[in-house]
């Protein structure tokens, strides 16, 4: 049945759409459109359902990405990807964990839609240049050039990444305790020299509209945020985008969440999401899957 095949490959299809779009809501829209297209096809005529569905989702995601590009350029303040709650085992797949991290998703935003599709399909999902050419309707030689250009762009801009771990959790707990007690110097000791805070309020709630850089500035900012929290706000540990994160909850409402980027025992990045439009689905764990083909990623 068409529904069975789509359900089987849904984690792979969602992961692909999310990495191309940076939005779980947009990824779900693409999957819905792709399912409608798939359900109108006779499955008996499709020799390789997964390949067919990947091509369909890729093309739909490309169309969607081109449509939202202009809207994101007009975004109020800093735009961050919609955070997705990931299972702890995502961190066991280093490529998958890094590919959905906030830092990598922001780098992917700097690619044009075709470059992003080619990079994600080849370097993350392991598809060959020939397979990608069939998916996006370009010559294999052209895809090879696009892949080379996109990879160089990404590698020049990618930040250091370490997936969620027990050591990272311990650092975050020390950080949160120091923030709660206003110990600025302790905070600064936990921050890397090039630490940066990015906050996304979407113009709907208070958030820093520009990056905050450097240990002293970040420590002061964090202490200021904590002072404005209510006494009933509680902090919960979680994993988002393969990264250790803290959820700040008041009553039953998730006020904001922060994903932490940690390298060599220090915090190098904090990604704060406050935009309520991007928090409304933050409680559900998103199953992710790369579904790497056996012969994939061998044609660099």
UniProtKB/TrEMBL annotation:
Q: How does it assemble?
A: Interacts transiently with the RNA polymerase catalytic core formed by RpoA, RpoB, RpoC and RpoZ (2 alpha, 1 beta, 1 beta' and 1 omega subunit) to form the RNA polymerase holoenzyme that can initiate transcription.
Q: Does the keyword Transcription regulation apply?
A: yes
Residue stretches making up the RNA polymerase sigma factor 70 region 4 type domain: 102-153
Residue span(s) of domain RNA polymerase sigma-70 region: 6-67
Q: What is the lineage of its organism?
A: Bacteria, Bacillati, Actinomycetota, Actinomycetes, Kitasatosporales
Which segments of the protein form a coiled coil according to its record?
Answer: none
Report the leader peptide range.
Answer: none
Keywords carried by this UniProt record: Sigma factor, Transcription, Transcription regulation
Give the record's family classification. Belongs to the sigma-70 factor family. ECF subfamily.
Q: Which Gene3D superfamilies match?
A: 1.10.1740.10, 3.10.450.50, Winged helix-like DNA-binding domain superfamily/Winged helix DNA-binding domain
What name has this protein been given in UniProt? RNA polymerase sigma-70 factor
């Amino acid at each position: 049945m068409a529904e069975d095949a789509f359900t089987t490959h849904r984690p792979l299809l969602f992961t692909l759409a999310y990495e191309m779009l940076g939005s779980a809501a947009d990824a779900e829209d693409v999957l819905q459109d792709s399912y409608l297209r798939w359900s109108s096809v006779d499955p008996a005529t499709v020799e390789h359902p997964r390949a067919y569905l990947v091509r369909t989702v890729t093309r739909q995601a490309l169309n969607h990405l081109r449509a939202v590009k202009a809207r994101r350029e007009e975004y109020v303040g800093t735009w961050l990807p919609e955070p997705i709650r990931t299972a702890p085992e995502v961190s066991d797949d280093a490529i998958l964990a890094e590919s959905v991290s906030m830092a990598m998703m922001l780098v992917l935003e700097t690619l044009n839609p075709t470059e992003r599709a080619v990079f994600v399909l080849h370097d993350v999902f392991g598809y060959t240049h020939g397979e990608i050419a069939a998916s996006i309707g370009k010559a294999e030689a052209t895809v090879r050039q696009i892949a080379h250009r996109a990879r160089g762009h990404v590698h020049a801009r990618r930040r250091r990444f370490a997936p969620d771990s027990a050591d990272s959790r311990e650092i975050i707990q020390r950080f949160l305790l120091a923030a709660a007690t206003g110990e600025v110097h302790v905070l600064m000791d936990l921050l890397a020299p090039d630490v940066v805070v990015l906050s996304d309020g979407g113009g709907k709630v208070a958030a820093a509209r520009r990056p905050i850089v450097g240990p002293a500035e970040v420590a002061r900012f964090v202490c200021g945020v904590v002072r404005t929290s209510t006494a009933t706000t509680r902090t919960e540990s979680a994993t988002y985008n393969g990264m250790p994160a803290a959820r700040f909850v008041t009553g039953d409402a998730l006020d904001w969440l922060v994903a932490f980027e940690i390298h060599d025992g220090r915090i190098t990045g904090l990604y704060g999401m406050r935009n309520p439009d991007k928090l409304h689905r933050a409680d559900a764990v998103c199953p992710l899957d790369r579904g790497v083909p056996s012969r994939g990623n061998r044609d660099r």
